[in-house]
Description:
By secondary structure, the chain is α+β, with helices and mostly antiparallel strands. The protein has 11 helices and 15 strands. A hairpin with a 4-residue loop joins strand 11 (374-376) and strand 12 (381-383). The protein starts with 53 loop residues before the first helix and ends with a strand.
Amino acid sequence: MASNAPVGKPTDMSAPHMPKVAGIDSTVPGPPHTTAPLPGVPAAAAPSDPVPPPGALIQDRLAAWVSDLTTLHELTERLIRTASLDGALREVLGAGAALVGARRGMAVLEPADGLGPAATIGLGLAHSDLGIIETVPRGTSSYGRLLDGLRDPARPERVPDPIAIPDVRTEEGLDPRHREVAARLGYAASYALPLATEEAGRLGAAVWLYDEPAEPTDRQRHLIGLYGRFATEHLARLLQVERASAQVSTVAEELLPSRLPRVPGVQLAARHLTGPRGGGDWYDALPLPEGALGLSVGSVTGTGPSALAAMGRLRTSLRAYAVMEGEDPVAVLSDLELLLRLTEPARSATALFAYAEPARRRIVLSGAGHAPPLVIGERRTEFVETSLSAPLGMLSCWEAPSVELSPAPGETVLLYTDGLLRRTGDAMDRAFARLHAAAVSVPQADRGDPGAIADHILRTLLPEGLDRGGDDEDVVLLAARFE
Length: 483
């Protein structure tokens, strides 16, 4: 957002032509009280211009400061509301363009520690344009020189100065490729700013492109410098969050099956989407004696590393109970509830375990506070009628009756966690209705592939991804299609 205060040097309307400075139209006259020079500055106004009283100059400077502070406050408020690195970089580019008077630009995220993530974001530039800019030798481009300076091993604490190229055509020392790219993309000047501070570290650089020869005024340089330091601190915080989230996702994936088993008579597919802080949702598919198959999904309360650890312990225990007494799902969950109550009394969990015999197309299942499975087929799409039961760890003794179902050839049984429903942002009854409608709308060509069915339901219920719904819950789907 641009400031309403006057920017740049006073304008002399008697001059036939004034050069363009940082995208400002120099033919527009400034307010009358700005034509007198500040003390120590050569006069730019005509000798006959009236001299304002001394207090007017102070008021003018105070008004400019207030306007600058208001502008910075509004821009930083908008930046704070961004919750992703991609969104923050786009906001920085837009705000910086307004502050320096440019129309286009690009930001390069390239942390000096080499741990990533790396990204290149453009403003008013197509993806192909960014590729063309990257053909300029890194050591000769303005942002490349800044990135090289950020990695200076001799002076790791030094933050490089911004680099201004007022006119690409006349600038000395530029690589010929730089001029070719500028001519092809139609920019004539640039201003590059390092995204680095001593406190936050060295993260990358941003460069703004002018359509005509120009460069920021001293006042604009000061404002973009202040904004850039704040933006770097915000980007550093988002970088830490994204790295922590990536680590949590890695741990979660390692605690879940690396691959699903191949059992005659059934096709399996699973989808697991981890929330920003990592949750305790799991799925499992375990081959059992005599061609049987154990299927389970569940969710441990809480988020973060502790929930992940509890999920890993609970899933491992359930596998052991399934091997010993899998044909009785009620016994499996009863043993799991007793273990949870004795070892982790402050935690609860929902779970569903199904004992499947693919050769007979028979399933016996039991749930503890868990959402009912969904059967998807040519002749029916319906939820399985399960008895209402409490989550594990909520009662002194858990027990609920099991139910039996017989899927027809070609039908898919979908198990899922309640994160899928909560992520829609709707009330639970509405979320169940939307899930049913999504299952009904699975295209005929996808019904033979359980993975395609799961993907269609995810796209339909969560078209905006995991950001929709505003919570940290995981999403798990486990689909079993019976032949």
